Fold:
Amino acid sequence: MLTFILRRLLQSIVVMLVVAFVAFLIFRFVGDPVSSMLGQDSTMADHEQLRERLGLNDPFYLQFFRFVANALQGEFGISYRLQQPVTQLILERLPATIELAFASATIALVFGIVLGIYTALRPRSLETAVVMTVSLVGVSLPTFLIGIGLIYVFAVELKMLPSFGRGEVVNLGWWRTGLLTQSGLRSLILPAITLSLFQLTLIMRLVRAEMLEVLRTDYIRFARARGLSKRAINFGHALRNTLVPVITIAGLQLGSVIAFAIITETVFQWPGVGSLFVNSVQVVDVPVMAAYLVFVALVFVVINLIVDILYFLVDPRLRDGAKSGR
Structure:
């Protein structure tokens, strides 16, 4: 298993270097940050002085090497727009994004697995037909349209929930949380539901398809012939084998929840890392944009590494293959 983990770690390092290079390469040639930082009344001398101070006149390879070296220390430079350390800006907004991602991932996993099991065990019931029909909404409609629809129904018409913002927050050291206040919890409901619908639908359909496939296998028929209870067959045998591929998809979807929260944060004006990235794009704030892409890549790489290890522990075929040297 140690060899397996070391090989995955090496692959993760290579992926991170490639992502860092691509991100830096793209944003190095997107717009002119100096023009965004200085006004129209600035002179060429002002432009040249600022470029020299920011290190933009250095060779490309030197800028990239400096970027990677600083990133390893958690430093991504100074924001061109806000003139503050990028790491500080991300850490200030990271709790909001993590709480939103955690809430939406919990909704997607719990309801996705439960509904997937229910629709698999009752494939011809009216309730299953209704659930499968409604689930098409989560697949077909774009996230921003779902968010706007929820705002119109629950915030504008029913006036039950707030339409934007994070609500009241509480400081727990450097972590600012809205989970301990009523307004914070109410503000979290609509964006969490919006962000979770696509993942919920995907997990539900995957669990249903995998469980229906497992229930048709020979060893399930043999278990029924032995007289095992439906509970033991469905949850002790079928569900356990169903969850093996679900672990992979659920893990990758958790990474996508954090990465694609940018749309939900924009719709609900949620003060997270995604909204910081959107604001940075508008003014070509290169350090923030590059740091955000590296952060998203790191999330995917770490989650993918964890999923690979869990898959290795759950699936005995991988362990047998590792022992045999395949």
Notes: Strands lie at 170-172, 175-177. The longest strand covers residues 170-172.
